[in-house]
Amino acid sequence: MELNVNGTVYEVEADADTPLLWVIRDDIGLTGTKYGCGLAQCGACSVMVDGVLLRSCVTPVEGVKGKQIRTIEAIEDDELGKRVVAAWVKHQVAQCGYCQSGQVMAATALLQRIPKPSQADIAAAMTNLCRCGTYNAIKTAVDELAGA
To answer: For the chain, how many structural domains are there in total?
Structure first.
């Protein structure tokens, strides 16, 4: 099957029910998207499909055929993604960094959907888990991006 990932079409061989995460990492070789829990709870595997954030660890690859898949590797391809990454660096959000690709994807998806989100919007969107507890730095970065 063909998958469009970050603007490049890849021909992959995978069972229809194979999680998108494993196709992205193992078949395509983009390892920025992480495996965390495998239950769509932690968000380390977050990617955007047609601009909508989803957990790739539970998304069957068959369901994303013909759609635009965006991973962390392409997040800085537009100005919003560059701004999100710059805020992450400015506020020194990352500690171990394992969850941060999913955190950046979540923040970018939120700001694409709602350029000036409320605190409630931010709380609802930024639900990814961070083992290091960088939630205050994440909130500070997202608040700044939201113009708060």
So the answer is: 2
